[in-house]
Recover the amino acids of this structure.
């Protein structure tokens, strides 16, 4: 019986083979039905509720003990100890060869990383450090062990958590805006775009040179890097004229980056790069269209014209692609 990792990898390969024209649609559907991943059924729903309840109970108990102690140092030590133990337990569960704990291991690892990070922050605060200093030191103290453990045990999910903490450390933040709505923002999109570009390049290097040793690590680097890179540049195109120079420069930069992603994806046979490039290019065009015509058109006309233009653009791209494939054939 194939493990869930094998089924997921086969599903990805089947999608790529179908997109490249290597297998017909009927063969793709047959293989996907036979070897596809299991559906998210009632059993997994109940299990997910149990995991969520365990998370809430754990943090509630931890907070209760820390409050009773009345000491930040005690609270920090408790969170560090709990975080270390939970991370170790989650890694051990993830190493099960039959992958019987694929969901619960991720939940335990996430709990451990969160608790350990909070423990470091509370410890630095108890030492009397200012907020800026505490944030600056928490990053390296937490990220170095996370990176080491991720590579040591080949844990992709742990690497994803580390990358999220890295980008959060560089300058992302979130807060509750009201009415159960949360917002995310980037403190300095210019710095974030450079950090994200570095992550993408690291991911490409992993894919081309280190894939046998690191497995799917390249997907974590590339996916998160592309999200933050394109998001940062999009923010700069909208707010650049107010804070970070001429907005037209950032519009050109976003267009160039999205086209570069499309070209790089085609040359490297990387559908992830191509997909992000096409999506970002379309978002860039729609944003410019919105800025110029939203207040000049009725809403129905705005969406009708925009939809027709996007449809025609898609048809043209498909025609050009088919002509290029015929020439190569």
């Amino acid at each position: 019986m194939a493990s869930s990792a094998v089924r997921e990898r086969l599903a990805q390969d089947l999608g790529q083979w179908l997109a490249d024209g290597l297998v017909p649609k009927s063969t793709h559907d047959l293989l996907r039905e036979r070897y596809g991943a299991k559906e998210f059924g009632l059993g997994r729903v109940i299990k997910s509720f149990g995991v969520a309840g365990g998370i809430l109970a754990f943090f509630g108990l931890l907070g209760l003990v820390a409050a009773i102690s009345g000491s930040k140092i005690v609270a920090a030590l408790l969170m560090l100890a709990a975080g270390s133990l939970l991370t170790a337990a989650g890694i051990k569960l993830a190493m099960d060869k039959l992958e019987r704990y694929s969901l619960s291991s991720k939940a335990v690892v996430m709990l451990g990383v969160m608790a350990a990070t909070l423990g470091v922050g509370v410890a630095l605060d108890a030492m009397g450090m200012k907020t800026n200093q505490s944030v600056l030191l928490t990053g390296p103290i937490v990220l170095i062990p996370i990176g080491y453990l991720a590579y040591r045990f080949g844990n992709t999910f742990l690497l994803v958590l580390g990358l999220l903490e890295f980008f959060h450390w560089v300058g992302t933040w979130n807060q509750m805006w009201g009415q159960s709505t949360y917002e995310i923002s980037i403190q300095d999109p210019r710095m974030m775009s450079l950090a994200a570009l570095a992550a993408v390049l690291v991911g490409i290097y992993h894919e081309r040179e280190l894939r046998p040793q690191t497995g799917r690590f390249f997907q974590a680097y590339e996916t998160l890097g592309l999200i933050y890179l394109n998001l940062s540049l999009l923010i700069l195109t909208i707010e650049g004229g107010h804070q970070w120079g001429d907005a037209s420069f950032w519009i050109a930069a976003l267009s160039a980056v999205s086209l570069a992603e499309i070209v790089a994806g085609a040359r490297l046979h990387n559908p992830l790069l191509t997909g992000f490039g096409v999506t970002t290019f379309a978002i860039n065009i729609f944003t410019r269209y919105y800025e110029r015509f939203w207040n000049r058109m009725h809403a129905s006309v705005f969406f009708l014209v925009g939809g027709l233009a996007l449809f025609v653009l898609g048809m043209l791209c498909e025609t050009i692609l088919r002509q290029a494939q015929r020439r190569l054939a």
